[in-house]
Design goal:
disordered C terminus
């Protein structure tokens, strides 16, 4: 495990909500960390907030260097909303800085057929997806939401007392 990281390749974990994408991505990131690799994990919405803050307070260069140097950059909840041109360009810049230097792990519930539409500018979308999709390892999860299954099991296993038979 981890050969793809050493080879500076990418991995995309897809599946429906609650299928375990974040769990798998975090497990892979933790494994990489335990193997001595530098790992940076972000939910994409939080990364975009950090980038905007960095641009405002002058720390953008420090953040982008940290992202570029990491052996593994894990981006969770990829493309839940449409990226406008500015944030899309930021993501493209990060991916470009990492090309040949580090591996990127994407966790997303967005099917591959919809990813292009989630990036506001078609040219930037082409560039981002070209860097991520074509040579990435893919893990596709299927099934019901684990949260839903756990909630159902919890209800089935509970020993609740109804008001009619309580003493």
């Amino acid at each position: 495990m981890g050969h793809w990281i050493a080879a500076h390749q990418d991995c995309i974990v897809t599946g429906p909500t609650g299928s375990g994408k974040t769990f798998i991505a975090c497990a892979m990131a933790e494994r990489a960390f335990r193997q001595g690799r530098t790992v940076v994990y972000y939910r994409v919405s939080r990364l975009l907030e950090e980038l905007a803050l960095g641009r405002a307070n002058g720390s953008l260069g420090t953040l982008t260097r940290k992202l570029a140097k990491a052996d593994l950059l894990a981006l969770d909840d990829w493309a839940l909303t449409t990226l406008s041109i500015g944030p899309a360009q930021d993501i493209l810049d990060i991916l470009e800085d990492r090309a040949g230097v580090g591996a990127t792990l994407i966790a997303t519930q967005v099917p591959i057929t919809q990813r292009h539409a989630r990036i506001g500018d078609p040219t930037i979308a082409d560039a981002i997806l070209d860097r991520l999709v074509h040579s990435a390892h893919r893990i596709e999860l299927r099934g019901e939401s684990m949260r839903k299954l756990h909630a159902r099991r919890g209800k089935e296993g509970s020993d609740s007392v109804s008001p009619t038979n309580a003493d």
